[in-house]
Amino acid sequence: MECRVLSIQSHVVRGYVGNKSATFPLQVLGFEVDSINSVQFSNHTGGVLGQRRAHIELGALFACYAHWKGQVLKADELNVLYEGIKLNKVNHYDYILTGYSRDTSFLMAVVDIIQELKKANPSLVYVCDPVLGDHGAMYVPEELLPVYRDKVVPLADILTPNQFEAELLTGRKIRSIEDALEAMELLHKMGPKTVVLTSTDLPSNQGDQHLVALGSQKIVKPDGSLTVQKICMNIPKVDAVFVGTGDLFAALLLAWTHHHPKDLKAACEKTVSVMHHVIKRTITYANDKAGPGKRPSPAQLELRMVQSKGDIENPAIVVEANILHNS
Predict the structure, then answer these.
(1) Which of 65, 70, 109, 233 is the most exposed place for a label (fewest CB within 10 A)?
(2) How far is residue 142's CA from residue 258's CA, in Å, rounded to a whole number?
(3) Could you tell me which of 128, 134, 120 has the C-alpha nearest to residue 149?
């Protein structure tokens, strides 16, 4: 059966950020994708457009373009685009995917669209990457936080915050695995049935060269009872920082939870393993192109997405998730 995604994210002409990161892997995995570009830039702007700490090490190898140009979509322009879709009666979606936004009115317009589409299709699944910040610093205006907390998160079915964003949304500090599990439970109570903390600063039992990610999924069985799966992943760090990884993570999680709707462990293992293959291929290519002892350029560090088609379709599992709770 055809499965269609409405993806509202940023767009770059050159490279892979936002919709450019999300569309190709979703199409490879069998999804039709309708894209609305919240911004349209010549290239990434240095990090805030899609940079996430999904098994990368911040502060390591990273390069910014010297220039960027482009346009930002306003709320009324978003509504015009959606109105055109609606007038043609092709506004039926199975999934909505959203990422970076830095304007309150635009985000509220997105909320209105999600509510309308969910009313038309109650089984629609909304995947939200609540891009707010990282490492204790917000890189969107602070007024977006209450919109995410009070309007966006309650509509989400799948939520992919990092540790800092989970702390912002719940008002709780995360200093241990137990704190993280409690924060995910609070996020569940706000609405999402699946929550994945894409990265944390928590110590890994596999050493400093790994990041810890956690996930929690609640599924209501046909008899009305609840089944819960909580997982933990130790993800190898790579000595580089990439742009577009968060957008790729959210898109892959959408796809693999669709293919494994009641198995968060399998969905996360495939998501993170694809990420690992893409990033390893990218850093190998970048270092080879730059040459010995030279720093790769921003263009050389763009994700090797097309070259990773085989890994996206059929990833070799290199990261296994540990089940913390399954009932």
Answers:
(1) 70
(2) 33
(3) 128
Rounded-to-integer distance, Cα 225 and Cα 205, Å: 34
Q: What is the CATH number of domain 4-326?
A: 3.40.1190.20
How many beta carbons lie within 10 A of that of residue 150, not counting itself? 11
E-strand ranges in 222-304 read 226-236
Question: In this structure, what token pair is assigned to residue 94?
Answer: 């199975």
169-211: pLDDT as tens digits: 999 999 999 999 999 999 999 999 999 999 999 988 888 889 9
The secondary structure of the chain in percent helix, strand, coil, rounded to multiples of 5, reads 40, 20, 40
Q: Which two tokens stand for residue 265?
A: 């462990």
Q: What is the pTM of this model?
A: 0.93
171, two tokens: 């008002």
| Tens-place pLDDT, residues 223-261 | 888 999 999 999 988 777 788 999 999 999 999 999 999
Kindly report the number of other CB atoms within 10 A of residue 191's CB atom.
16
Instruction: Identify which of 227, 250, 210 has the alpha carbon closest to the alpha carbon of residue 23.
Output: 250
The residues assigned a catalytic role are 247
Using the 8-state DSSP alphabet, how is residue 47 labeled? S
Q: Decide: helix, strand or coil at residue 12.
A: strand
